[in-house]
Design brief:
It contains 13 helices and two strands. The protein has 369 residues and is mainly alpha-helical. A two-stranded antiparallel ribbon has the order 1-2.
């Protein structure tokens, strides 16, 4: 500013910091590199808070990097455990992401996993199909069972407007109790009398290709490529982007909203059913009563952190698997409860949820008149 008479620049007035005024604006768009930077800062902040909690719980600060990075990623046996754990997590992460893209909040991933595993185990228990095709049949039946279990809440939502959050969540309990009914009843292992199914035969187990996790991880990566093609290159993916942005507008421009939601939900259930197959046939070697615990929350977390992107969901799933494996190590060597690992997950989720505010909004200083 200049003086009106002399034309000499007027001295700038000092404005106290607390007297400055700001307004909150909705950000039109933020570039992907900036979004990635905000998300990375949020995750780092969550991990720093988690590290402080672990130090307070008795883990030496100098051992955190050793446990979470060196002993997990750079140790061959631990890395194999991460990949082993990561394959079904990739599947449930993809399952959640494809449903969320259709604005359908599928919280029934664990129930769909249970029915996928039950369907696959039924072929083993009742000796259905020739041995050479048994594994492929188990895969197909698991896919169909997960798909069918996701169909009921989808029809309730599309036909009568029943909230899918409640419907899918309650059906998890139905599936879980039916699983217990089988394992404490007709499918109890006669050899040991423990509540799990008889062990699968060797031709009913996933083969060890390049390690114990090879076949399961290969299936998960193929699923990731298929979902990526669907959401990025196919017409259905274009329709899903319209549905995700605004279902009323999508319907107004001629997008078959009901059909696309149904396709996304059925695909989500099928992926979750295959995840159940990967755990039972790849990890457990039998049907157990707690094989699905934690996968439902992890799938929702993975889809949320990855912003429903299939490739990002794969990376996040492997990071979550790394956290699980490192958490088990902390349980063994430092007597850290598993709930502490779940607390770390929750802190990271809160951090990422907070970062969404900074991605969608910005503070702008209001200049004095």
């Amino acid at each position: 500013m200049t003086d009106a008479v002399s034309g000499v620049p007027a001295p700038r007035r000092f404005e106290p910091l607390f007297s400055r005024r700001y307004t909150l604006e909705i950000r039109q768009q933020m570039a992907w590199p900036q979004q990635a930077a905000v998300l990375a800062l949020a995750v780092v902040a969550g991990l720093l808070i988690s590290g402080a909690i672990l130090v307070g719980a008795g883990v030496p600060a100098g051992e955190l990097f050793q446990e979470f990075v060196v002993a997990t990623v750079f140790d061959a046996q631990s890395l194999q455990a991460v990949l082993f754990q990561g394959a079904p997590m990739i599947m449930v992460g993809l399952a959640a992401a494809i449903a969320f893209r259709a604005r359908y909040w599928n919280l029934g991933l664990e129930g769909q996993m249970i029915w996928g595993a039950i369907g696959a185990t039924a072929l083993s228990v009742y000796d259905v199909g020739p041995p050479g095709l048994r594994l492929l049949l188990m895969f197909g039946v698991a896919l169909v069972c997960g798909l069918l279990w996701s169909l009921l809440p989808a029809l309730l939502r599309l036909r009568w407007g029943v909230n899918e959050i409640i419907a899918t969540l309650m059906l998890n309990y139905v599936a879980g109790n039916f699983l217990l009914h089988l394992l404490y009843g007709a499918w109890k292992d006669p050899a040991s009398a423990f509540p799990h199914s008889p062990a699968f035969q060797p031709f009913e187990r996933l083969p060890e290709l390049l390690g114990p996790s090879g076949a399961a991880l290969g299936i998960a990566l193929v699923a990731m490529l298929g979902v990526w093609w669907l959401v990025n290159l196919s017409r259905a993916g274009l329709y899903l982007r319209f549905v995700q942005a605004s279902p009323p507008v999508a319907h107004a421009v001629g997008v078959p909203v009901t059909r696309m939601v149904l396709v996304a939900v059925l695909l989500s259930g099928a992926l979750a059913g295959v995840a159940g197959f990967l755990v039972t046939s790849g990890q457990e070697g039998r049907l157990t009563q707690a094989f699905y615990h934690g996968y439902g929350f992890s799938g929702i977390l993975i889809a949320f952190l990855a912003r429903n992107h299939p490739i990002a969901a794969t990376v996040v799933a492997l990071l979550i698997a790394t956290l699980f494996v490192a958490g088990r190590s902390l349980q063994v060597f430092y007597q850290i409860p598993f709930s502490m690992v779940q607390l770390i997950q929750a802190i990271v989720v809160i951090g990422v949820a907070s970062s969404d505010f900074f991605i969608r909004h910005r503070l702008r200083r209001v200049l004095p008149s």
